[in-house]
Specification:
By secondary structure, this protein is α/β, with parallel strands linked by helices. It has a single domain (about 10-290), classed as TIM Barrel. The protein contains 11 helices and 12 strands. The chain has helices spanning about 50-65, 80-95, 105-115, 135-145, 160-170, 185-195, 210-225, 235-245, 245-250, 250-270, 280-290, and strands spanning about 10-15, 15-20, 30-35, 40-45, 50, 70-75, 100, 125-130, 150-155, 200-205, 230, 275-280. Strand 10, helix 7 and strand 11 (about 230) form a beta-alpha-beta unit. Helix 3 (about 105-115) runs parallel beside helix 4 (about 135-145) and helix 7 (about 210-225) packs parallel to helix 10.
C-alpha cells in the first residue's frame, strides 16, 4: 500500500467514513436501488414499489456488509421528485446508512431535498451529483436548501483523461498542490465550496470499460492534489460491454471475473468508495471487494 504526501480528508456521513489514506478506512460499497427497469418498482412516477422485496434486498445486503466488514451506502434513483420522496422516506426508516439522491432529472433531486429540508434526514442525504453543466440557478438552489453532502462529477466528454479531470476540478490550479491540505481554488470545486457544500465526494466518471484505467489514474492524481475522497461507477461501462460482447453476455462467470478485475484496479489506486451497481449484485460484489486488502498502511 502507498501513502499520499498530502493530508487526506475523511468525510463522516452519519457514521460512515469516506476517504483517508489508502487502507485507513474500508471501501464504502454503494448499491443502486429503484433504478429504471428495477423489477420491484411498480409505478416509477409515483414511486410505488414492492416493499417486501425491497426489505429482502436491503436485509441481504446488510448481512453481507456485516459479514465482510465493509460499510455501505445506497444510491437511490427516481424519475420524479414524488418518487424520490417515496423511496427515501422508506429507506430512512429501514436503514441507517448514507443515501445518495440520484436522478437524470435535476429538478427531481431538488424537489426531494426541498421535502426533507430542515429535517435530520439532511445529515444522511447526498446530492448526486454536481457537474460542469449545472446552471447558476441550480447552484443557488443547492445553497438555499443548505445541502452539505454532495458528489462532484469530474467528467465531461472533453474531460476523460486524468489531467483533464484535474483541470475541470481545479481550473488553472490543476498542477499545484495545496500546502494547507485544502483543495486549491478555481474550477468546479471552487463553485461547490462557494455554495456551502462541506462534505465533497469526487466521482471521477467512467467513459467506457477501457477508460477505467484513466479513471483509476485520476483517482490517485486527484487525491494527491486535493486530499478529497474519490470513487466511481465502473459497472455501467461493464454492463454496456456485456450487451455488445456475445461471450460476456452469455457467460456469467466471465462477467463476474471482469467486474472483480475492474474493482480491484480502482481500489488499488486509492478509491474510497465504489458504485457497484444493482443491489442484487451484493452477493458477489462484497466478497470481491473484501478480498482487496483493507489494511492500515504501515
Amino acid at each position: 500500500m502507498f501513502r499520499f504526501s498530502l493530508p487526506q480528508k475523511t468525510v463522516n456521513i452519519n457514521g460512515t467514513l469516506f476517504g483517508g489514506q489508502p487502507g485507513e478506512n474500508a471501501t464504502v460499497m454503494c448499491s443502486s436501488i429503484f433504478f429504471a427497469g428495477h423489477k420491484i418498482v411498480q409505478d416509477p412516477l409515483a414511486g410505488r414499489f414492492d416493499k417486501s422485496a425491497a426489505r429482502r434486498l436491503l436485509h441481504e445486503e446488510f448481512l453481507l456488509a456485516k459479514k465482510f466488514a465493509l460499510p455501505r451506502a445506497i444510491n437511490v434513483i427516481g424519475e420524479t421528485g414524488q418518487a424520490l420522496v417515496s423511496y427515501l422516506t422508506f429507506l430512512l426508516e429501514e436503514t441507517e446508512c448514507p443515501l445518495f439522491v440520484d436522478s437524470t432529472n435535476k429538478t427531481a433531486i431538488l424537489e426531494a431535498f426541498r421535502y426533507f429540508k430542515n429535517s435530520r434526514a439532511m445529515e444522511r442525504l447526498i446530492y448526486n451529483s454536481i457537474d460542469a453543466y449545472h446552471q447558476e440557478a441550480e447552484l443557488a438552489e443547492i445553497k438555499k436548501l443548505g445541502i452539505k453532502n454532495a458528489v462532484v462529477l469530474a467528467f465531461t466528454i472533453h474531460h476523460a483523461k486524468p489531467r483533464d479531470k484535474l483541470a475541470l476540478l481545479l481550473g488553472d490550479c490543476s498542477c499545484k498542490v495545496s500546502a494547507t491540505g485544502e483543495p486549491p481554488s478555481g474550477g468546479l470545486l471552487e463553485k461547490v465550496k462557494a455554495i456551502g457544500v462541506e462534505n465533497i465526494l469526487i466521482d471521477v466518471g467512467v467513459l467506457d470499460l477501457h477508460s477505467t484505467a484513466w479513471s483509476a489514474m485520476a483517482i490517485r492524481e486527484i487525491k494527491a492534489k486535493t486530499g478529497l475522497p474519490c470513487g466511481c461507477a465502473p459497472t455501467n461501462a461493464l454492463f454496456n460491454l456485456q450487451k455488445a460482447n456475445e461471450y460476456l453476455n452469455a457467460e456469467k462467470e466471465a462477467r463476474l471475473a471482469a467486474a472483480v478485475a475492474i474493482y480491484s484496479s480502482i481500489i488499488y489506486q486509492g478509491a474510497d468508495w465504489l458504485f457497484y451497481g444493482a443491489i442484487r449484485n451484493a452477493k458477489w460484489a462484497y466478497p470481491a471487494v473484501a478480498t482487496v486488502p483493507q489494511c492500515v498502511p504501515s
